[in-house]
Design goal:
The complex is a heterodimer.
Chain A lengths: L7 H27 L7 H19 L2 H25 L4 H19 L25 H5 L4 H19 L1 H11 L1 H6 L4 H27 L11 H11 L4 H24 L5 H19 L19
Helix pairs in contact in A: 1-6, 1-9, 1-10, 1-11, 2-3, 2-4, 2-9, 2-10, 3-4, 3-9, 6-7, 6-11, 10-11, 10-12, 11-12
Chain B lengths: L1 E5 L5 H25 L4 H9 L1 H4 L3 H27 L7 H19 L7 H27 L3 H21 L25 E3 L4 E2 H19 L1 H11 L1 H6 L4 H25 L13 H11 L4 H25 L3 H23 E5 L6
Helix pairs in contact in B: 1-2, 1-14, 2-13, 4-8, 4-9, 4-11, 4-12, 4-13, 5-6, 5-7, 5-11, 5-12, 6-7, 6-11, 8-9, 8-13, 12-13, 12-14, 13-14
Classes of the chains: A mainly alpha, B mainly alpha.
Chain lengths: 306, 359
């Protein structure tokens, strides 16, 4: 065992990379849940985003177009969730599960011819001055643009929810859809937009796994990250900045256990690989006591009878 | 203008008709999917739904129907109890794995002793393994209010790692020339779950039928079953009627875990034969579709389990004969759940045409 082989600079840099898929999917789900919709299909939307992005990036040679396609792919799958829950008024839990099961199958079908291919590399930003700072430069300022987009998205979502009229309406719809409806807000339309945003974010997160983090395509490669993102929203008690904090925490655990595996710690690999899931459960237990921040209409079907 | 009007009670006729319409719709859109993949849609649908039952080699495939259907029905029966009460155990895959590990572990501990008590003890081990794994989300929900959906699902990934660890370590066959995987339980007469392999009969099939009857009696003739239904339909009313939510959570999750664990044990001691890294094939997730397709009703689940087993077998035939990708069948099964959920609107709402009025 050689723990000194773990380089703290690389550790933090790869922590940020590992956290980004969870962050993107988590912030998208936060917006959907703030509007009162519980979409359990995050895992399905992520994996469809992962293969859509991968396929387009490989075919066009442009990772940028890949990420665009991933967002479209994730949103397209969430459109099915819209049809089920907002048009056909189906149970949101069951519909979300359906979305995940369907998405896993669909992605495997789409990805048949893409196994074992390397995607075009996603370029890193070369930030002058900041990137040249010793230690902190390579740690924080030498990443690809999507990683910073994820952080920016947290700020945008936070500001929108807190300071704008649109954010206020979104929260009103999530807290009491009947009251919002009585005030003349289009509850269903607002929720549809929130679900599509969540789908696009999950798609981006998925593509970040297949294009940057791994980078290649294998079936079921999201391996529960979508579910961890769902847990993250509860962990963050529906607050955007806490999503960032939580994502970095989970990213840190993932990277650390991989580093420990590589360093040959005397714990079997399988037990180390369990740790992100076990810690998710632990965190859920600690934070489950306080549900006061959950949107009051979360998961409830809205049907305007008149 | 189309207006939805909520029915005072779900329509009985529609609740029987919608699964059938959903199956037909899935066949149609599945055919479209197969056509897009460049296969003859009529031939593909016939291969999946007709050939296993009445085709040339049906004598070989019909027993498979029992083999594939039994675990699906066993797991789905357990899930349906919880789903009815709004308790969402979606980690049956993990409970299935743990049941298999514990059950097989018990059997292997006795190897090579020849005794009639070995198999009953393994059954007990399988049930306890699945039950204990389901008790984790149940107790956390009761004690801390933790979301059972997320916890039970996280435990699937933990169970998968446990499976890998077991087949490479503790349960590895000492005479297996270093290959991962346990001893083959089919070669250990006291521990096999087969009754008659030629007709596909193993103890899992027997237990699946017992579970159907048990669930039917419970839901229709027993106070606990009434409480389960009441909690699902009117949680507040259930509270006033004196239903203890904690007891219900422990019962529903525990039962579904035990049944999933049994399914895992019968699979490992029969059709699969041994604990391997890729022992689980997703029955725990497909059973969710089976539960909904069967309308959470025991008899419905029995039929739905048969139909879903058919898509597995037919899917394998279509794979080898038509070159249909394995994932296409997974999409096909997912599609079925979509149509089911979407068509449910007909059960719960009336669709009325109304002239648009001035507000």
């Amino acid at each position: 065992m050689d723990l000194s082989a773990i380089n703290p600079v690389l550790l933090i840099a790869s922590l940020m990379v590992a956290a980004t898929p969870i962050l993107l999917a988590g912030i998208g789900e936060l917006v959907a849940e703030k509007s009162g919709v519980l979409n359990l299909g995050v895992e399905g939307m992520m994996i469809v985003g992962a293969i859509s992005g991968f396929a387009v990036a490989v075919e066009t040679g442009s990772p940028f177009l890949g990420f665009v396609a991933a967002a479209i792919g994730g949103a397209a799958l969430s459109l099915l969730f819209v049809l089920l829950t907002q048009v056909a008024l189906a149970n949101q839990v069951a519909s979300g599960l359906a979305l995940t099961l369907f998405g896993l199958g669909l992605s495997a079908l789409m990805g048949q011819n893409y196994v074992g291919i390397k995607p075009p590399p996603t370029g890193r930003l070369d930030i002058p001055l900041l990137g040249d700072i010793p230690v902190i430069g390579p740690m924080l300022f030498n990443h690809d643009i999507v990683l910073y987009l994820g952080i920016a998205l947290v700020a945008v979502v936070w500001a929108t929810l807190k300071f704008t009229r649109a954010g206020l309406i979104l929260r009103a719809v999530g807290e009491s859809h009947d009251a919002a409806h009585a005030l003349g807000y289009k509850v269903v339309r607002i929720r549809i937009l929130a679900i599509l945003f969540g789908g696009a974010c999950a798609g981006l997160g998925g593509a970040y796994i297949s294009l940057v983090r791994v980078p290649q395509w294998t079936e079921g490669m999201t391996a529960g990250v979508g579910w961890i993102a769902l847990a993250l929203v509860v962990f963050a008690s529906w607050k955007p900045w806490r999503v960032l904090l939580g994502a970095y925490l989970f990213g840190g655990i993932t990277v650390l256990q991989l580093n420990l595996q590589a360093a040959g710690v005397a714990i079997p690999v399988e037990y180390l690989a369990m740790s992100p899931y076990l810690i998710t459960i632990l965190v859920l237990v600690i934070l489950s006591k306080d549900k006061s921040n959950a949107p009051a209409s979360l998961g409830r079907t809205f049907h305007a009878s008149h | 203008m189309i207006v939805l009007e909520k029915r005072p009670q779900p329509s009985r006729n529609w609740s029987i008709a919608t699964p059938l319409i959903a199956v037909l719709a899935t066949m149609f859109f599945g055919g479209v999917l197969f056509a897009v993949l460049g296969k003859n849609p009529v031939e593909a649908i016939r291969t999946i739904f007709w050939d296993p039952l009445f085709g040339e080699f049906a004598f070989y495939y019909r027993p498979q129907l029992l083999v594939k259907g039994a675990p699906l029905v066993l797991i789905a029966i357990g899930l349906s109890l919880g789903f009815r009460a709004g308790i969402w155990n979606i980690g049956a895959e993990g409970q299935y794995i743990m049941g298999a590990i514990v059950g097989a572990g018990v059997g292997l501990a006795f190897y090579p002793m020849d005794s009639i008590i070995v198999f009953p003890l393994m059954i007990l081990g399988g049930a306890v393994g699945g039950w204990a794994w389901a008790m984790i989300p149940a107790l956390l929900k009761v004690r801390f209010g933790t979301n059972e959906i997320l916890v039970s699902l996280m435990l699937v990934y933990v169970a998968e790692q446990m499976l890998a660890s077991m087949s490479l370590g503790l349960l590895k066959n000492p005479q297996g020339f270093g290959f991962p995987g346990s001893r083959n339980l089919n070669e250990y007469a006291s521990a096999t779950s087969w009754i008659n392999q030629d007709v596909g009969m193993h103890w899992g099939v027997v237990f699946a039928f017992i579970a159907v009857i048990f669930a039917y009696v419970l839901l229709n003739r027993h106070m606990l079953g009434f409480h389960i239904r009441l909690t699902g339909e009117a949680p507040r009313a259930a509270r006033f009627a004196g239903v203890k939510p904690a007891r219900l959570i422990l019962f529903c999750l525990g039962t579904s875990g035990a049944l999933a664990g049994l399914a895992g044990l019968f699979e490992v001691a029969g059709p699969a034969g041994q604990i391997t890294i890729d022992f689980n094939v997703g029955y725990g997730f497909t059973a969710i579709i089976v539960a909904f397709l069967g309308r959470l009703h025991p008899l419905g689940i029995l039929l739905a389990g048969g139909l879903m087993a058919l898509t597995y077998i037919g899917g394998e035939i279509a794979q080898s004969q038509l070159g249909l990708p394995a994932a296409a069948i997974q999409v096909f099964q997912g599609m079925l759940l979509f149509f089911l959920l979407a068509l449910d609107i007909l059960t719960n709402y009336r669709i009325r045409l109304r002239k648009s009025e001035v507000a």
